[in-house]
Design brief:
Strand content of chain A: 5-15%
Number of helices of chain B: 7
CATH architecture of the largest domain in chain A: 2-Layer Sandwich
Oligomer: heterodimer
Number of domains of chain A: 2
Low-confidence stretches of chain A: none
Structural class of chain B: alpha/beta
Number of domains of chain B: 2
Helix content of chain A: 55-70%
Shape of chain B: elongated
CATH architecture of the largest domain in chain B: 3-Layer(aba) Sandwich
Distance between the termini of chain A: 62 Å
Helix content of chain B: 25-40%
Strand order of the largest sheet of chain A: 2-4-5-7-6
Number of strands of chain B: 15
Radius of gyration of chain B: 21 Å
Number of strands of chain A: 7
Order of helices and strands of chain B: EHEHEHEHEHEEEEEHEEEEEH
Largest sheet of chain A: 5 strands, mixed
CATH class of the largest domain in chain B: Alpha Beta
Mean pLDDT of chain A: 87
Radius of gyration of chain A: 35 Å
Low-confidence stretches of chain B: none
CATH topology of the largest domain in chain A: Heat Shock Protein 90
Distance between the termini of chain B: 39 Å
Order of helices and strands of chain A: HHHHHEHEEHEEHEE
Strand order of the largest sheet of chain B: 2-1-3-4-5
Structural class of chain A: alpha+beta
Shape of chain A: rod-shaped
């Protein structure tokens, strides 16, 4: 309609020229914004600069439109028709061409900004989440480490064979915690192997006070779960359960598949006067948060202290 | 020097015994694996020094100290709780990190030796200091620095410098262990340190008003006032 009664070749030359100019000019604005770090500026400063940029671009594009019209149609104003131009004075038509340029380039820049910002936000969120996961990843408790070393030292003179075994367990435990530093998920099989080394060292410390029962379903062994998760549960059960009891007690480690979930259960006898439910330790809180980041609602950690005799920590993760 | 080793880990006790064997002046007279056993052994064997682990079943090493009347010299042994021990700013305690360095152990023993040769008080001597754990804070409180003991139910609040620690014993139980030459039962709820008294005024009905060093005033009940006057004239 706008080009009614105009030959296509001329309209093409005019609008093609304007479009190329528009793309070029906005590209210059983008390069400027990047080079001078406008995108990192506070919103007001960024919007001010972008608005000024749009005005400059629109003015240049407007001038170009008029110049091109001169060349193509030998007229100051491109012979357009339509509701915006028909019956307008030449001045009004000039003004509308300018408004048109501002709107087109303004929209273009706004879309560019929105997409760039969204992309940036998304990237920040992902890296934040990764940082959070890294922070939450449980590490070996230094208390455990130094006690184990002290135990080894004690064994060296009297029981060198046990001392050698202990060093091997310690080396494997340390290697595991260092190796899984970059991994989020490991197979239960691999985690269990580490937990056995860990338990061997805790047995050194607690001697006959620590007794362990295991009930691991074969199908559960291949399921992948957050590294150090089972270790955290076991450590917690020993620290707040077995080690608090003069006579010690039995630690139960269970793993089974329940529908689409892997269910881990670590049970320890409950010392008298031990706090009730809600995961109180930093270790369990971090583990809960880690499960949430990795699995959303599908990963849960629950501490059941409703039984007076024992405390059960239960983890469910998608199998 | 008689030493007791308290640690819930048999291997840790064995290691410390072995380290101590290198010092002829030290005789290890026993060991304990939890704080109940440790309390019994300390009361029964009266060691000069106790090597005390912090994390143990049934209560921490700090909990043990709060339950003792006669405090032996304490050296904490810990794998990683040195921060907890360092929290004692006022009355610094010695601590050893496990695994224990023989040189550090020698230095700690040297310090204790000096103190022990001053002689330990007799078993029935009055209390001189108490270990108090009030919430997360702990103190060794020399009793001669306490101005007033005030009963709060089954507990006793101490007026000690700027601190007001709460002691987990009753005033009646505490009174029997205090030095009667220094401490005086002023009324049903308060025991006062005589060294803190600056002035005495007669009150109504035979009562006395006692002014203390810190501007505090305490009332001596009629019954106790008679005792107080009798004492003062004798002294």
């Amino acid at each position: 309609m706008i080009f009614a009664s105009q030959p296509w070749s001329k309209a093409g030359a005019l609008w093609g020229g304007i479009s190329i100019a528009g793309v070029g000019l906005t590209h210059v604005l983008r390069v400027l914004a990047r080079r001078h770090g406008w995108l990192a500026m506070p919103p007001d400063a960024l919007l001010g600069r972008m608005f000024a940029g749009v005005l400059v671009i629109a003015t240049l594009a407007w001038w170009l439109t008029l110049e091109l019209a001169q060349v193509v149609y030998d007229a100051r104003i491109p012979p357009l028709s339509g509701v915006l131009y028909d019956k307008l004075s030449p001045g009004g038509q000039l003004r509308n061409v300018f408004i048109f340029q501002v709107l087109v380039h303004g929209c273009w820049v706004a879309i560019y900004l929105a997409v760039t910002m969204q992309r940036q936000r998304w990237r920040t969120q992902v890296s934040l989440q990764q940082a959070e996961l890294r922070l939450l990843k449980s590490q070996l408790n230094p208390h455990f480490l130094f006690n184990a070393l002290n135990g080894v030292r004690s064994l060296i003179a009297d029981e060198p064979d046990r001392a050698r075994d202990a060093v091997t367990h310690l080396a494997k435990t340390l290697r595991y915690t260092l190796a899984v530093g970059d991994e989020d998920l490991v197979s239960l099989e691999r985690e269990l192997e580490m937990v056995e080394d860990y338990l061997a060292l805790e047995s050194l410390r607690l001697a006959e006070r620590l007794r362990v029962e295991r009930d691991i379903a074969a199908a559960a062994r291949t399921v992948r779960l957050p590294a150090m998760l089972l270790q955290t549960l076991v450590e917690n059960a020993i620290k707040h359960g077995i080690a608090e009891l003069k006579e010690g007690g039995t630690l139960r480690v269970g793993a089974r598949i329940d529908g689409d979930f892997l269910v881990l259960q670590v049970t320890n006898p409950r010392p008298p006067g031990a706090p009730g439910s809600n995961p109180e330790g930093v270790g369990l809180r971090n583990a809960t948060e880690r499960l949430r980041l990795l699995f959303g609602d599908r990963g849960t950690l629950r501490l059941d202290a409703s039984n007076a005799a024992c405390v059960v920590a239960e983890v469910r993760v998608p199998a | 020097m008689k030493a007791l080793v308290v640690d819930d880990e048999p291997l840790a006790r064995r290691e410390l015994r072995r380290l101590l064997a290198a010092f002829p002046s030290v005789e290890v007279i026993g060991e304990a694996g939890n704080i109940d056993d440790a309390k019994a052994r300390i009361e029964q064997l009266a060691p000069d020094v106790v090597f005390l682990d912090i994390q143990m079943p049934g209560g921490t090493g700090f909990d043990l100290l709060t339950r003792l009347d006669r405090l032996p010299r304490i050296v904490f042994t810990t794998a990683y709780d040195q921060y907890a021990v360092k929290a004692f700013e006022v009355n610094a305690l010695d601590y050893l990190l496990k695994p224990v360095e023989p040189e550090r152990l020698a230095a700690a023993l040297h310090k204790i030796q000096a103190a022990v040769t001053h002689g330990s008080p007799a078993a029935d001597a009055p209390l001189e200091q108490l270990f108090i754990k009030d919430g997360p804070r702990c103190w060794f409180v020399p009793l001669r620095e306490v101005g007033v003991f005030t009963s709060e139910g089954n507990y006793v609040r101490l007026l000690w410098g700027r601190e007001r620690p709460l002691l987990g014993r009753s005033l009646a139980a505490l009174e029997t262990k205090l030095d009667p030459r220094r401490f005086f039962r002023a009324n049903r709820g308060q025991i006062v340190n005589l060294d803190f008294i600056q002035g005495v005024e007669a009150g109504e009905g035979g009562r006395l008003h006692v002014q203390l060093r810190d501007g505090l005033e305490i009332e001596v009940s009629r019954r106790q006032a008679r005792l107080f006057k009798a004492r003062s004239t004798v002294d």
